[in-house]
Amino acid sequence: MPRVHEKVSYWMLVLPALSIMVCFYILPVLGIWEIAFTEPETGVGNFVKMAGSNAVKTSFVITFRVAAITTVGCLILGYIVAYAISNFATRLTPLMVALVILPFWVSVLIRSFSWIVLLGRSGLVNDALIHAGMIERPLRLMHNELGVLIAMIHVMLPFAVLPMLTNMRGISGIYVQAARSLGASEWTSFRQVYFPQTLPGVLSGALLVFVLSLGFFVTPALLGGGRVLMISEYITYQIQEFLNWGLGSALSVALLVATALVLLISARFVNLRATLLERK
Amino acid sequence: MTDTTDFEAKRDIAELAVERYKQGRLTRRGFIAAMGALGVLPAFGQRAMAQTKEIIVVNWGGAAADILQEVLCDTYTAETGIKVTVDGSGPSAGKIRAMVESGAVVWDLCDSGAGSAIILEQQGMTEAIDYSIVDKSKVLEGTAYNNGVGNYVYSYVLATNPKLLGGAVPQTWEDVWNVKDFPGMRTFRKSVRGQLESATQARGVPLAEVYDALGTEDGIKASIAKFRELRENIIVWGSGSDSQNLFLQEEVAIGNIWSTRAHLLKDQMEEGTFNVSFNGGVIAPGIWVVPKGNPVGKDEVMKFIAHGQKPELQVEWLEKIGSGPINPEAAALVPAELAPFNPSSPENLATQIIYNDEWYAKNQVSAEEMYVDALIN
Question: Is B270 near chain A, with CB under 8 Å?
Answer without folding.
Answer: no
